[in-house]
Amino acid sequence: MAKTAADCTTMAEIRENIDRVDNGLMALFAERWTFIRRAAEIKAGLGIPADVPERVRQVRDNAHRNAEAHGLEGGFYEEIWAQLIQHAIAYEKAELGES
Q1: Torsion (CA) 34, 60, 80, 44 in degrees, nearest 10
Q2: Hey, what domains does the chain have and what are their CATH numbers?
Q3: How many helices (H) and strands (E) does the chain have?
Q4: Closest CA to 90 of 50, 38, 52, 39
Q5: How do residues 10-62 score in pLDDT, each as one tens digit?
């Protein structure tokens, strides 16, 4: 059953809710990935390379700002997003036939 952290009184409840949130995050990552796949298709048709440094910077900055807006450490989450971006670029390079 979904609870807030403050409503949890046992470690079992904490763990159950962390697992629930993690599952929700994975669903959002899966949705995000549908856009990465579609971006590769669109980039192929427009001749846009996989790695667009200005967009990479923008996405990292957004992650930093969004994390801080939620009371989280911006730099830490920016680095997580950097890994997501690297993975997406590698995927797009393979799809676009870039070396």
Answers
A1: 30
A2: 8-96 (1.20.59.10)
A3: 3, 0
A4: 50
A5: 999 999 999 999 999 999 999 999 999 999 999 999 999 999 999 999 999 99
